[in-house]
Amino acid sequence: MRAVVTTGDGGVRIDSVPEPTLQDPQDAIVQVEHTGICGTDLHVVQGHLPGVQAGTVLGHEFVGTVLAVGGAVTSVKVGDRVVGTDFTACGHCWHCRRQEHWQCPQRAFLGTGTSFGPALVGAQAEQVRVPFADTVLAMLPRDLDPATAVLLCDNFPTGFAAAQKSRIGPGDVVAVVGGGMVGQLAAVAAQLHGASVVVVSDPVEARQAAATSTGNLATAPDRLVPTLHDLTAGRGADVVIEAVGSAKGLDAALVACRPGGTVVSVSAHVQESWNFPLADAFAREITLQMVIGDPLRDRDRMIALAVSGLLAPARDLMNTTDLRNAVDAYSDVAHSRALKIVLTV
Ligand SMILES: [Zn+2]
Ligand SMILES: [Zn+2]
Q1: N or C end: fewer C-beta atoms under 10 angstroms in the chain?
Q2: pLDDT tens-digit series, residues 249-281
Q3: Rounded Cα distance, 342 and 345, in Å
Q4: CATH number at residue 277
Q5: Of the ligands numbered here, which is closest to the C-alpha atom of 85?
Q6: Do 77 and 200 have their domain in common?
Q7: Structural domain span for residue 88
Q8: What is the rounded CA–CA span in Å between residue 262 and residue 259?
Q9: Ligand nearest to the CA of 297
């Protein structure tokens, strides 16, 4: 079957790979119909993750139709249209029962080699094997456009978790550092949690325009602090969501945060360490929180919000193209010519 794989030298190619088979009674095989390209995929392609071999099938965001199920699967059946999640979890262990699915010892992250658990072949392919299908797969709501549903696998729960964990209160001024799709959806989620103003900073003008189109203010990075100071009598943002995934992004977030405020870092970090300004952060009583989205924990809320139309403006910011065009699509995402591309299979 056709799949998008890493070349090992910073690129991708379309390759022919074996079709997946059921390996466990809890598995399902899904015929992929829509699969997103995400910032994490770029880390995989560019060699930033330690456990990725050349030829790794990419992708962890998918919507499709169930082709086969193992004998223990009860919640989905052949022919069901389903939406997945970016990582798997058993659904029964101590962490899963606490709604901390990312910490499940049986976590596997699709399409990222062995970087976050045992290797699990990615979803940018005609078919994908899904372990713990009863936990991982949800029925695709009939009224939800499948490309929008791709956002439920990772980007929206990630942005939502950032807003939720930051404990934004009604009237708070929120800054979002980084206007990729996670940053855009974090801004939407911040509005939902009661922010009075959300300011998104990004160097790319199209991303600033995207943020404005969904009801936020937008600035270039060098204008973020002056803009926040104008809005807050010089204090800075109550909450800053860092959605870049870099030391530079964290530095910018700390500077934008008011004394006593909260910085939430939500994008995938691949850098080993970061020079944290300890004395300054202590004196200003900054709360710093690292957050990973949990599409399993938050899926029912995400689906309800998506069906209500909350993601319709974000859908307008997305492009779709055939999986055969994946090489160009990856290039467009890597060079910020597109905010989000969904491959159709
Ligand atoms: Zn993703
Ligand atoms: Zn578990």
Answers
A1: N
A2: 999 999 999 999 999 999 888 888 999 999 999
A3: 10
A4: 3.40.50.720
A5: 1
A6: no
A7: 2-154+294-344
A8: 9
A9: 2
